[in-house]
Each structure stands twice: as structure tokens, then as C-alpha cells.
Amino acid sequence: LAFDDMCYTTASATTTVLPLPVELLNFSAKLQNQTTILTWATASEENNAYFNIQRSTDGENFETIGQVEGAGTTFDIQEYLFIDESPIIGLNYYRLQQVDFDGQFENHKVISVSIQSEVNEVTIVPNQVRNQFDIVFNEAIDANAQIDIYTINGQLVNSMNLNITGNRQT
Predict the structure, then answer these.
(1) Is the pTM of this model over 0.90?
(2) pLDDT by residue (tens digit) across 91-104?
């Protein structure tokens, strides 16, 4: 091939980088008295209608548990707060979903918090009791307790006071 017989094609692309509607500075969670306090701050906002606060127990399937009004358009730092009064026992994942005035939305960072039960959970072993059973607690305790045993019909069978030490009592 001669140089004159070669074809050249040139192409160019123009990309427009649109600024994000919200520049998130931070997003954090703190436990306080069996509630989760979520705080976040933005450096700037453009057409920000509100934030949906979303929660999940698996980190994938989120449900909206609250909404906080946004600042619209601002270039000043904005600080926000939301309190989850009823977190789920176990691992809670939280996500911010920012929604514009036109309904467009953007999901932000996911954070997690572990909620421990305040109640000492009890398991009876075996589950069909004849003459003897074990009471198993989810953590070791040292306490005096009154144990009342009822039939499935609600009749009191026995009542006793026990000094429980450890996490298992026969």
C-alpha cells in the first residue's frame, strides 16, 4: 500500500462533568441508650430537597426509616442529625439517599452499627420438659431470681427462688 492509499479516521468525544448535587463531608453513627444517632455534614448542596435515611440488616436491601429536609442550594457547610429510636438488635446498616427537587436521587456511603440486647435472653433446654431442665442465659449473670413454671394453659406448676451464677442453671 502506498501512503496515499491509507485512510485515517479521527474521533473526539466531549464529556461534561456535572457537579454532584451534594458534597458529603462526613456520615457517622453513634450508639446512645439503645438508639442510633446519625450525623452528617455537607460542604455544598445544589437543588437538595431532602435526605432519606435508610436502614438494612443485610447491607443490600434498604428501607427508608426517616427523612430530613435538605438546604436546597447552598455553598455553606450544613450539619444534619437523625435519631433511629428503634434500631434492630444485631447489625444495622445505614445509608443516606439524597433526593433533588426533581426526584433524582443519589445513594451515599453505607455505615454500620451493632446493637446489643439490654435484656438477658433465656433459653430452656430441652424444649419439652419432663422432670429437669436447664436455663441458659446469653451471658453470665450473678443474681437471685424467682423462677415461675407454668403449663401451656397458664397454670402455675412450681415457683422457686434460685441463686444463679454463670450462664447456665439446672
Answers:
(1) no
(2) 999 999 999 999 99
